[in-house]
Task: inverse folding
């Protein structure tokens, strides 16, 4: 294939990218964003898969077997934590308008400049080789496609190099879509759409070649693996521990866990370009799924390449492209080339934007602003200067990567270049994660830990690459620094037996974390640090109030603030923002002195443009701020915290109030019910009392009026009067008793009694009554003594009630009563059976009500007060027992009560 | 081996905890399943259904985790710990 075809294809593909990006921005203008959904967001995260994944994984798999998978399993573990952890970072960045990883860490540690610069430098140094790797992949793939030998074009002849032109066009693309708005915290709509599109292209292309090789050339996975197993040199690719140690496997997994969050390009797409937090939910499973799909064919392709090119000298990194070419699949090869190209370009685009924002905000802008001795000039020219700074940074970055590719990289094996970057960005993890989860993390600790990690990383990974590029002498590797054997880059302190990446990762993280923790515990914090720590750690409490809290004291004049904003945003936009904010918060703009809230707002807006550290300094340059004391800061926080708490408490109180009202209504209903019950009770009691009184009165009147009444008759009448008064006093006694039980005044006097005796006594006292009706009373009580604790007098009364009731209802002569005792595991049951008329099932409950007989006048009126069963029930309940009746309504009835067996 | 793994995953879904806690537990479990010594149980030079055992193990664990992840985060009402 000719060179022209390859170049034209690449250019055509870039044109499509332009179209996609334009289309996305066109849609945004019409108000129909295409990136505002979880699928596009998840696809944009797949910028993680670079040309290194695309070509390099197969190369890695063909020598080290499974090892490459660790780099995709690590991100999967991170994806599980997207919702709990990354969401917190996103929330922090949105409320504070943070637009890069350097900004995040410096803002956390008191908007500190030193931190911002260190992080930026480490990112740039760590990532440029990674960008170079992408450029290298592009040029290599063009050579493979056109079947030209990879000729060495030296840096001075760059005009003859295809890669140079591709880098140039990429720079133009990035500048066009990446530096549109001055506000770096705004979304790059077109760019994200293009990245998502690239993610689809590289995935489809890789799957296409995978299917072609596994199913076109071989007969499926089984076939390839079986053939590989027959080959002794390939067999050990299928196990860990042969080529890759478990330590390396774990190290790579951990490093990639951090990389997927802290690599500048990942931070850009996952945090800065995030439109809505809820998109994280889609990304949490869709992104790992993408990784699974793109990795399924890697090992089979590697094996296929090894089997097919067994005796040819072909670089395993190029198998993906070389295999379809070998089988003369021109169309497929071209598509695979485009896929690799898309993987490389997407990485370069996002990384360049992320790094350029960092460079311009944290290095270029401060130098520029302070060198010029900043003078307010309200024409918005500064915004162009800042945009131009970003544009220049992009060009410089890509130029640096290109130069690196042409010089150092020519001599260095590229395989581990990406991993070197992974270890570099992992250095941010302790400061960043510690910063969002611990309030005691301090600025000094962050600086110290990152610098320590940086130094060890540089020594263990960067110096060796300079040695192999013949910039440093070989003796460093063999004899150690200054000839000290314990300072050998690949075996620091004599640690042997690890590959260089795991070795470096271990030592950097070890010292990084130790330094971070010890310095944190031993350093004083400034007010600003404490405030930011509070906001970061408790972001979900503060996110609504963080922007409204005013931690600023001093004098500022409105015209100064205005002109400062206008410098960066242009007059119109600055004016709109200020007036809008003033209106929302009811702040007057007429006074000359600026409200503290406006100052803080302006700083926040500026932070989005030039980063929080620069913004803080800019604001300070036009205002006279007073130093806030730590307790003042804490007071402000506490107040806003108290407001929230107060609010919560109020809510809780109103809920409590509602509950109380409900309870009152319930209580009221109960009272009403009890009131009617009392009326009824009184009515029945008076009714019951009136009957005997009427008859007493009638009989005494007769005796009174008839003085000549015969003696026996008078005796009879007087005898009846006595009986009626007895009945009356009995009734009153029972009413009083019941009242006592119900009000809880009656206290039980417990004593040890023998149930058998209680029953015998009860029968004995009623024996005469039974004999009158000629009734037999039988007992069936086991011989064992039922010793139990109860109030003997009261239980006796219950027995009396039940037995006398039975006597009342059984027929004369044939009447039979049987009393029996049954024991159970935890209760004793006493049964009183009779062969009376029985009780209908629907009456079983209500016969225990007070004056049940009185209310049911249809029943035959027997003797008794009508309170006996009610009282019995009460007594049994006071003993924690139960009482009920069993009867079918025809053949007698059985009253049963239980007492707990203790 | 696979059975133990599956039963672990089953427990995650059973737990009546907030989704944040479940996710943190899941991440620790995944790290454990993919590290020494657990991964060594599948680390054998054998083919299972024509596929190397370790390859099969890693991908099955991977896919199951994604399915559980999907079920945890895409629940209709995700509990926000705010």
Result:
């Amino acid at each position: 294939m000719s060179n022209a075809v390859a170049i034209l294809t690449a250019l055509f593909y870039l044109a499509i990218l332009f179209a996609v990006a334009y289309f996305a921005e066109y849609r945004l203008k019409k108000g129909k964003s295409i990136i505002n959904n979880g699928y596009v967001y998840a696809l944009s995260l797949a910028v993680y898969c670079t040309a290194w994944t695309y070509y390099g994984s197969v190369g890695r798999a063909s020598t080290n077997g499974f090892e490459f998978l660790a780099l995709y399993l690590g991100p999967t573990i991170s994806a599980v934590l997207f919702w709990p952890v990354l969401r917190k970072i996103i929330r922090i960045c949105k409320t504070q308008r943070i637009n890069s990883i350097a900004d995040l860490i410096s803002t956390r540690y008191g908007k500190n400049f030193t931190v911002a610069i260190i992080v930026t430098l480490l990112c740039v140094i760590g990532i440029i080789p990674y960008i170079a790797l992408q450029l290298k992949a592009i040029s290599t793939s063009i050579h493979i496609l056109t079947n030209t030998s990879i000729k060495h074009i030296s840096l001075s002849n760059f005009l003859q190099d295809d890669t140079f032109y591709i880098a140039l066009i990429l720079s133009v693309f990035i500048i066009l879509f990446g530096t549109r708005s001055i506000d770096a915290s705004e979304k790059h709509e077109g760019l994200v759409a293009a990245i998502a599109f690239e993610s689809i292209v590289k995935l489809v292309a890789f799957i296409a070649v995978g299917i072609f090789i596994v199913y076109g050339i071989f007969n499926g996975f089984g076939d390839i693996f079986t053939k590989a197993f027959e080959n002794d040199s390939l067999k050990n690719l299928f196990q860990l521990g042969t080529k890759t140690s478990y330590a390396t496997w774990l190290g790579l997994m951990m490093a990639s866990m951090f990389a997927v969050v802290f690599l500048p390009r990942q931070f850009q797409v996952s945090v800065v370009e995030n439109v809505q937090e809820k998109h994280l939910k889609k990304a949490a499973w869709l992104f790992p799924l993408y990784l699974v799909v793109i990795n399924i064919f890697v090992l089979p392709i590697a094996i296929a390449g090894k089997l097919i090119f067994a005796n040819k000298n072909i670089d395993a990194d190029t198998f993906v492209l070389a295999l379809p070419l070998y089988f003369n699949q021109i169309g497929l090869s071209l598509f695979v080339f485009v896929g690799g190209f898309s993987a490389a370009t997407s990485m370069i685009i996002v990384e360049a934007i992320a790094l350029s924002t960092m460079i311009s905000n944290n290095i270029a802008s401060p130098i520029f602003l302070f060198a010029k001795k900043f003078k307010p000039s309200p024409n918005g020219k500064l915004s162009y200067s800042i945009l131009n700074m970003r544009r220049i940074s992009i060009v410089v970055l890509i130029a640096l990567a290109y130069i690196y590719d042409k010089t150092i990289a020519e001599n260095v094996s590229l395989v581990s270049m990406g991993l070197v970057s992974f270890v570099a960005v992992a250095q941010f993890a302790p400061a960043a994660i510690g910063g969002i989860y611990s309030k005691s993390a301090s600025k000094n600790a962050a600086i110290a830990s990152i610098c320590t990690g940086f130094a060890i990383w540089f020594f263990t990974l960067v110096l060796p690459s300079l040695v192999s590029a013949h910039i440093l002498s070989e003796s460093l590797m063999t004899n150690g620094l200054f000839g000290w054997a314990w300072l050998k880059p690949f075996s620091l302190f004599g640690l042997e037996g690890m590959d260089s990446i795991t070795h470096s990762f271990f030592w950097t993280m070890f010292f990084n974390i130790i330094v971070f923790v010890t310095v944190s515990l031993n350093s004083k914090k400034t007010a600003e640090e404490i405030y930011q720590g509070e906001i970061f750690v408790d972001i979900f409490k503060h996110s609504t109030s963080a922007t409204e809290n005013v931690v600023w004291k001093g004098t500022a004049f409105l015209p100064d603030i205005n002109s400062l904003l206008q410098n960066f945003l242009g007059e119109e936009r600055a004016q709109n923002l200020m007036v809008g904010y003033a209106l929302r918060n009811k702040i007057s703009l007429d006074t000359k002195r600026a409200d503290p809230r406006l100052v803080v707002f302006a700083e926040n807006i500026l932070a989005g443009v030039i980063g929080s550290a620069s913004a803080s300094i800019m604001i300070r340059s036009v205002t006279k701020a007073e130093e806030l004391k730590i307790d003042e800061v804490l007071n402000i926080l506490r107040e806003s915290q108290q407001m929230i708490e107060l609010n919560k408490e109020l809510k809780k109180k109103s809920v409590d109030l509602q509950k109380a009202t409900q309870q009152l209504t319930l209580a009221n209903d109960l009272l009403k019910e009890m009131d009617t019950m009392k009326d009824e009770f009184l009515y029945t009691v008076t009714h019951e009392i009136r009957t005997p009184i009427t008859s007493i009165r009638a009989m005494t009147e007769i005796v009174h009026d008839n003085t000549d009444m015969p003696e026996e008759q008078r005796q009879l009448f007087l005898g009846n009067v006595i009986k009626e008064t007895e009945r009356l006093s009995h009734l009153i006694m029972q009413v009083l008793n019941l009242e006592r039980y119900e009000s809880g005044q009656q206290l039980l006097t417990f004593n040890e009694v023998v149930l058998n005796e209680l029953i015998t006594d009860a029968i004995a006292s009623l024996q005469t009554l039974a004999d009158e009706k000629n009734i037999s009373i039988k007992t069936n009580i086991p011989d064992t003594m039922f010793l139990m604790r109860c109030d003997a007098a009261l239980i006796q009364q219950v027995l009396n009630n039940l037995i006398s009731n039975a006597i009342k209802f059984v027929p004369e002569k044939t009447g039979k009563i049987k009393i029996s005792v049954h024991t159970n595991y935890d209760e004793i049951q006493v049964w009183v059976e009779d062969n009376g008329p029985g009780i209908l099932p629907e009456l079983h409950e209500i016969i225990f009500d007070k004056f049940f007989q009185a209310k049911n006048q249809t029943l035959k009126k027997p003797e008794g007060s009508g309170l006996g069963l009610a009282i019995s029930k009460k007594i049994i309940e006071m003993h924690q027992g139960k009482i009920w009746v069993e009867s079918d309504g025809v053949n007698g009835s059985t009253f049963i009560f239980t007492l707990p067996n203790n | 081996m696979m059975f133990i793994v599956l039963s672990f995953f089953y427990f995650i879904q059973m737990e009546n905890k907030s989704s944040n806690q479940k996710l943190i537990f899941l991440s620790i479990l995944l790290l454990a399943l993919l590290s020494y010594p657990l991964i060594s149980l599948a680390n054998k030079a054998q083919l299972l259904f024509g596929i190397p055992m370790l390859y099969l193990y890693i991908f099955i664990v991977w896919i199951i985790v994604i399915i559980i992840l999907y079920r945890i985060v895409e629940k209709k009402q995700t509990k926000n710990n705010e």
Remarks:
- Chain B touches chain A at residues 19-20, 23-24, 26-27, 30-31, 34-36, 39-40, 43-45, 47, 49-55, 58-59, 62-63, 65-66, 69-70, 73-74, 78, 81-82 (CB under 8 Å).
- The radius of gyration of chain B is 14 Å.
